[in-house]
Write a structure and sequence with these properties.
Blueprint: H1 6-16, E1 44-45, E2 54-56, E3 70-76, H2 81-97, E4 102-108, H3 118-127, E5 134-136, H4 141-145, E6 153-157, E7 162-168, H5 173-186, E8 218-219, E9 239-242, E10 253-261, E11 266-268, E12 274-279, E13 283-290, E14 297-303, E15 321-324, E16 328-334, E17 342-348, E18 353-360
């Protein structure tokens, strides 16, 4: 899923963010130059974390108890591809600066119902190697306390408990790390240094190929879906046998087989159901999982009617074979250049899968 209201976020970041720092970001090389100190505006006090329903990797933390520390609040939800691509940097900052007074807190505020399950969050955190504190915000109480509207969202809190900066969406990693360094320096930490972290992103964590990204996030539940092209349209909340049209236009999607379209998801009732999507992007992901916990669903992916080969994603093999075992984001396609309009199709060999959204990169 892209950052909620992402285009608006980009506008707001320029309109209400702090002054642009005096450097140019070079994404290929960690900068060694010393930036000039920047004065940050006060954006408000550190809101309460008391709305957390649980904590992982830590005892419960409070704003008052964190006074004297620089705090980075990271709003996330584990199936969000935009947040996933920021994770290598947040993880690296947490490790690099943890002994110098930085506390990173991941506030997990779910989008989908299955993301409220603490076992699912715990499994995702383990697989993604997140060992910094996680506040479980399943009721969106902390989200509301910050007046937040975006995934991902970073809030930078100084040692006096004041929010000094925020960033919505992906990117600006050098600027964010410079802010961390400055706030630590302002807190009296010596010998911070000005080197930047270097990350080795893999799989779904690799930055999007924005030059070739022409397909939007697409929800498949009826509450927010668009461009559904199966003849006759959607039948809500009951089983229906769908067919795919002979041709899909770019960013159209369709079902074939016996499916139930629900508010947030589509659920396959009988084996051999298919989803087709005509897309234009390097990467294609699908958020999905077994409808019954502890079961698995086999599937096969085709691209333009053939096995993906070198275009396979990290969660399938070159023949397009994969298995759904958990409710999560699956990377199904990562194609080499050149990027063109392609027809994606996934066939489920077993019933009982539920799918939520397509995302691209």
């Amino acid at each position: 899923m892209k950052a909620k209201k992402f285009l608006l976020a980009a506008i707001l970041a320029g309109a209400i963010g702090f002054p642009i720092m005096a450097f140019t970001e070079d994404k290929s090389v960690a900068q060694q130059t010393t930036p000039a100190a920047v004065q940050f505006p006060l954006e408000g006090d550190f809101p309460s974390l008391g709305g957390a329903t649980d904590w992982l990797n830590s005892k419960p933390l409070t704003a008052a108890g964190l006074r004297g520390k620089v705090v980075l609040i990271d709003f996330w939800t584990y199936s969000c591809i935009n947040w996933r691509r920021t994770l290598p940097y947040v993880r690296a900052w947490a490790e690099k600066y943890k002994d110098q007074g930085l506390v990173v807190i991941g506030v997990h505020s779910p989008e989908f119902e299955f993301e409220k399950n603490v076992d699912n969050i715990l499994q995702a955190a383990k697989e993604m190697k997140i060992d910094y504190p996680i506040a479980i915000d399943s009721d969106h109480a902390i989200w509301s306390a910050f007046n937040n509207e975006y995934w991902p969202a970073l809030y930078f809190v100084d040692a006096q408990g004041h929010i000094r900066h925020h960033h919505f969406g992906e990117g600006d990693y050098e600027q964010s790390e410079r802010i961390i360094q400055q706030l630590l320096t302002d807190a009296g930490v010596r010998n911070i240094g000005h080197e930047l972290v270097s990350v080795d992103a893999r799989g779904a964590e690799v930055a999007a190929d924005s030059d070739d990204l022409k397909s939007p996030e697409t929800y498949v539940g009826y509450e927010r879906t668009e461009n559904f092209a199966s003849p006759g349209g959607a039948v809500l909340d009951k089983g229906h046998v769908y067919v795919s049209p002979a041709r899909l236009e770019l960013n159209d999607w369709a079902l074939s087989g016996d499916w139930t379209m629900e508010k947030q998801a589509i659920v396959l009732n009988k084996a051999s159901g298919r989803i087709a999507y005509r897309f234009h992007a390097r990467d294609l992901h699908l958020v999905m999982g077994p409808a019954t916990r502890g079961t698995s669903v086999r599937f096969r992916v085709l691209i333009d009617g053939k096995p993906p080969g070198a275009a396979h994603g990290s969660d399938i093999d070159g023949q397009g074979n994969g298995t759904v075992t958990e409710l999560q984001l699956y990377q199904l396609i990562r194609q080499p250049q050149p990027i063109n309009d392609r027809q994606f199709e996934i066939e489920f060999l077993d019933p009982g899968v539920e799918a939520f959204s397509f995302t691209f990169g």
